[in-house]
Amino acid sequence: GVARWRLGGPARARGWGRSGAPVGMSGFAALAAATREARRRGATALLGRVTSPSARALSCSGAARDASDASSFVDVEKAQERARLKAAALAAQSAAESGAMHVFDRAVKAAHRDRAAYLRRHDPSGDRTDPFLEEITKRTLDRLNDVKRAFENVLVLGGATDAVLRRLLEDRPDVRVVVVVDASRDMLAFVRENAQRDFGADRLASRESETPTTSKSSSVDVFEDADIASHTLRNAKGKEVRVHYARFDEENLPARDGAFDVVVSALGLHWANDLPGAMAAARASLKPDGLFLSSILGGETLREMRIACAVAEMETEGGVSQRVSPLAQVRDCGNLLTRAGMKLPAVDVDTLTVQYPSPAKLVEHLRSMAETNAAVSRRPGAVRRTTAAAAAACYAHMFPAADAERGDAVECTFQVLYMTGWSPGGNQPLPLERGSAELSLAKLEEELAKVPPGKGPRTES
């Protein structure tokens, strides 16, 4: 969970430095002083020498600037600056501290999302939607209906981007601009294809838009690195909605401060290494009194698979390795919202039990959702055939589906944590100051005790 996000390696022993050359105590003192100085200055002194590989891989520096379009919401330079600052801060720390926040391999996770886009695009049934992602997206966005306010500018962060965009276009006539951010170019292309097919002006425009363009004179905005063109769609009410696509890591948002009315992330942020930082960046992109809405997988997710894999590995290999990525716990979500600067934080939980025909079908579904293991500490290489067969047998024996027609059908638990928070604003309700109450609960209890039985207020059934 979040309590285990900070995974530090062993401290360097015997006075060996980063370069492999031995250093004395004065060298460690100098390193500590340099670290404190870099933190104090925001690591600005190192920006010219440190460039994040993820920033180079995910940059969109060639974005076309339309006067009234993507540049109003997307700030590429700011995202690159954030990535450089993070890289500089890590470079100024010791080896143990440098690996402290590196829990997930983001490059592997981007590859997982590329694979998921391919699998869903070439699904034999021809259905590109995922029932589970659609259901979680519905439950997440249902919270928007509780707020009697228009949300014109929306930022969508990773996860079930396809389902989120589709539901916004179907159910939210107030939406005018949507910016979709994802670390996977293939997933962005997949989302754009589906949106153009379902909500494009006509099929001819849909076919023409499938050809990528890099011309800066084009009428649409183009992020040249991602090669995904912006386009104008029509929602279910026939109103125009402008949709932009940006290939960026969710931890280094390209959003301008105060540009969005709501930030939505359905099943995306639980793969962030710096989850508090990603949430703080999302809060900064919100207008005053803007809404942050997120759903992530919780620590009870795939508990059956954890147990089955552990039993199988212990039996066949004599040890246990990490086969499922660490996830957040319920108790940490409120602290995450508060640490990110959110006001009026709220957290609630759904625990869903899903049935699968076999353990193999469960693994296939996880792959199509890009929810397979991406932990840095995962065991390299593929699972042995004997271990995989033993894990499947253990799973089917220990966690059979209660009302399944087939004997090898299994159940799987998904715990979904919903987080809601608001950016600071002047019109928000504020809690009363501590000690301002005029009647204590103890006094209220004493007064209620004086009421004779049967004389109190009645409730009609």
TrEMBL record:
Domain Methyltransferase type: 227-293
Coiled coil: none
GO MF annotations, alphabetized: S-adenosylmethionine-dependent methyltransferase activity
Phylogenetic classification of the source organism: Eukaryota, Viridiplantae, Chlorophyta, Mamiellophyceae, Mamiellales
One Gene Ontology biological process: methylation
KW Methyltransferase (keyword) present: yes
Matches recorded under Gene3D superfamilies: Vaccinia Virus protein VP39
Organism: Micromonas pusilla
GO cellular component: mitochondrion
Protein name from the UniProt record: Methyltransferase type 11 domain-containing protein
Keyword Transferase among UniProt keywords: yes
Keywords, ordered alphabetically: Methyltransferase, Transferase
